[in-house]
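A.,

Following up on our hallway conversation. Structure tokens first:
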């Protein structure tokens, strides 16, 4: 598949997506976080790309949401779902669900949702989810003690891009390699031609080094796991709490993470800790060892009577106060003992192994002196040895840990993805529970069940608590007027119908006891306009409706009090005309209007009228039956009030007035 074939993906985005490991599979997976790893692609854009890929897969180029209000209802639906997510990933991933007119897309989404609603939204899982985030790629670590070497320009370019962590050096012959071995602890030669090379230092000829990055730069894997430690631990906790089938061996993962420090180094190895401490403490230990020897000598000298011959005395005075020869001659045993003490201290303090202790012994024991002096070159040799042993040990441990982690690299991707996907499923499950939802039946436009039928529908978008929402039954097939008292719930009914249809075509459950919805090609929902329109706006609105009645089949048209756009007489005629046109096209329409009677009179066909009825006024309050009654023109609020007055007052005026309705 060409990436550019995805709706909304241009050449620039396609180029960014090609930076991903497997661009097509990633885009098709719908994994918003993985798509967002492409440079310059944020999660919102990734969600749009994933949606575009879904559309392409289902040949779904329709736009169900045809008006601003329809788009608003979709946003409100998405927000209700998003509010129930824990992770940012799930919130974005939910955006890949959109109302579709494609049966296969709706079916695909429904099968995801059907298993999602079976999930148990356990609070412990939600708590664990709080720490889960998509895995991140840490910045490239520079490794300075190792280099790659090649004689070939092409290999050099390949190495530089495959292993940006290491310097890549050009070499022509063994001498060049040997020179590199003096500057780097390890040299990896990439050319077969150097096989059998015999130079001093840690030099390896590994022509396949670029294909085995875990071995060549274990630091890369270690940095990845160190940077993602908390996410991985959280994902492992989610799997534990939710009892998900595991992609990765969690015990192995925990064990490997415990051996890794946040800076990508290996912890918990006693030998490495010993060597590291020995290098760090070397200078301090040498100086303490000197003091130990000095103290020992001082004590010995204090306790001894030293007889000094005249010539010696003379030479002492003439040479300055050099007592070394005296030490050598008179206190040889004591001096040796002091030196032994110093050596012992050094070996103990640095916890040296026997062969290291041999090197350490050379630090003391030169010409006798007081105070005792150490041999700086021996210290430096010891330091070099200990540092090299430390680095060798660290490199071996890194390589071992990287090899353990290498096996987990793929599984942890899945581990985290499964945890994040679980959050998406749990959000859907909570939505379904919170709003007593049911899976709707979405039927083909030409089925006998065209239009919509909702039973026990309760809108979560109302301005009252969900528990106070009264259930509504409403079914429409064809174009219908919806009449009713003020504040009877007409607008709320349109909102409910729009929400149920949008959710159903997203493949989501709907807040009703049961619902059957036609698979509409387009949903046109027009909210009530705020007051009369000026001539220009009125003309524009009429044009909209002109386009609407000319448009495709399979539309749902919901219109709230269109009469408010102009004077009542003209409005009734316009609405009647629109209804006629829609009726001829077998569109489904609900037009809320207070002018139902006038529209019916102005129409050339038998307009269906439903009504939200008031059972009457009780203490000035409307008692309303919220479910529209089919084929019934509801009485208006003014009519109800006149009727009440006609009953209450002993005058003909209200009775006469009532007859005019
Ligand atoms: N199903 C319902 N359950 C509970 N309360 C409802 C329901 N439907 C509507 N209401 C309440 O009635 C109020 C008015 O509803 P709505 O605006 O839908 O009425 P309307 O018939 O469109 O009014 P108007 O004729 O003034 O435009 C809502 O704000 C809500 O508080």
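Then the amino acids I'd put at each of the 661 positions:
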């Amino acid at each position: 598949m060409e990436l550019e074939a995805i709706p909304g993906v241009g050449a620039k985005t396609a180029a960014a997506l090609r930076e991903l490991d497997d661009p097509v599979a990633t885009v098709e997976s719908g994994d918003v976080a993985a798509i967002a790893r492409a440079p310059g692609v944020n999660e919102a854009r990734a969600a749009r790309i994933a949606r575009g890929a879904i559309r392409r897969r289902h040949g779904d180029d329709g736009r169900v949401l045809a008006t601003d209000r329809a788009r608003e209802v979709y946003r409100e639906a998405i927000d209700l779902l998003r509010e129930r997510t824990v992770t940012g990933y799930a919130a974005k991933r939910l955006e890949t669900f959109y109302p579709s007119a494609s049966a296969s897309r709706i079916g695909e989404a429904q099968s995801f949702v059907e298993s999602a609603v079976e999930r148990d939204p356990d609070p412990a899982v939600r708590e664990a989810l709080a720490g889960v985030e998509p895995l991140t790629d840490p910045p490239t670590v520079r490794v300075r003690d190792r280099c790659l070497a090649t004689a070939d320009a092409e290999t050099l370019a390949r190495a530089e891009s495959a292993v940006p962590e290491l310097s890549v050096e050009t070499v022509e012959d063994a001498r060049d390699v040997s020179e590199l071995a003096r500057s780097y602890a390890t040299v990896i030669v990439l050319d077969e031609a150097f096989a059998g090379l015999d130079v001093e230092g840690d030099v390896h000829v590994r022509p396949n080094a670029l294909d085995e990055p875990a071995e060549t730069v274990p630091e890369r894997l270690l940095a990845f796991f160190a940077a993602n430690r908390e996410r991985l631990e959280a994902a492992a906790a989610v799997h534990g709490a939710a009892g998900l089938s595991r992609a990765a061996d969690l015990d192995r993962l925990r064990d490997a993470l415990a051996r890794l420090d946040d800076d990508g180094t290996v912890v918990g190895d006693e030998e490495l800790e010993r060597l590291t401490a020995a290098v760090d403490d070397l200078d301090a230990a040498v100086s303490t060892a000197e003091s130990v020897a000095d103290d020992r000598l001082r004590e010995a000298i204090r306790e001894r009577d030293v007889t000094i011959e005249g010539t010696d005395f003379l030479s002492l005075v003439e040479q300055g106060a050099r007592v070394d020869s005296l030490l050598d001659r008179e206190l040889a045993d004591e001096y040796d003992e002091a030196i032994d003490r110093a050596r012992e201290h050094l070996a103990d303090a640095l916890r040296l192994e026997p062969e290291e202790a041999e090197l350490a012994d050379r630090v003391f024991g030169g010409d006798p002196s007081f105070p005792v002096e150490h041999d700086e070159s021996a210290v430096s040799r010891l330091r070099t040895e200990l540092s090299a042993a430390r680095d060798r040990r660290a490199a071996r441990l890194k390589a071992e840990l990287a090899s353990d982690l290498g096996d987990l690299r793929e599984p942890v991707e899945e581990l985290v993805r499964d945890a994040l996907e679980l959050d998406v499923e749990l959000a859907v499950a909570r939505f379904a529970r919170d709003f007593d939802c049911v899976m709707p039946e979405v039927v083909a436009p030409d089925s006998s069940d065209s239009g919509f039928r909702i039973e026990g529908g309760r809108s979560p978008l109302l301005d009252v608590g969900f528990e106070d929402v009264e259930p509504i039954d409403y079914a429409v097939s064809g174009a219908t007027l919806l009449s009713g008292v003020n504040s009877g719930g007409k607008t709320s009914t349109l909102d409910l119908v729009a929400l149920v249809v949008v959710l159903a075509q997203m493949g989501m459950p709907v807040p009703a006891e049961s619902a059957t919805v036609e698979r509409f090609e387009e949903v046109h929902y027009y909210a009530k306009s705020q007051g009369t329109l000026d001539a220009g706006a009125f003309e524009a609105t009429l044009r909209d409706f002109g386009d609407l009645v000319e448009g495709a089949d399979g539309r749902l048209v919901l219109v709230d009090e269109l009469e408010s756009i102009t004077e009542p007489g003209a409005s009734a005629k316009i609405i009647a005309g629109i209804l006629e046109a829609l009726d001829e096209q077998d569109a489904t329409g609900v037009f809320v209007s207070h002018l139902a009677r006038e529209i019916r009179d102005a129409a050339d066909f038998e307009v269906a009228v439903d009504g939200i009825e008031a059972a009457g006024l009780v203490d000035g309050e409307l008692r309303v039956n919220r479910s529209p009654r089919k084929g019934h023109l509801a009485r208006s609020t003014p009519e109800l009030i006149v009727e009440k007055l006609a009953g209450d007052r002993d005058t003909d005026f209200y009775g006469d007035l009532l007859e005019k309705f």
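The longest helix spans residues 270-303. Curious whether your intuition agrees with the design.

B.
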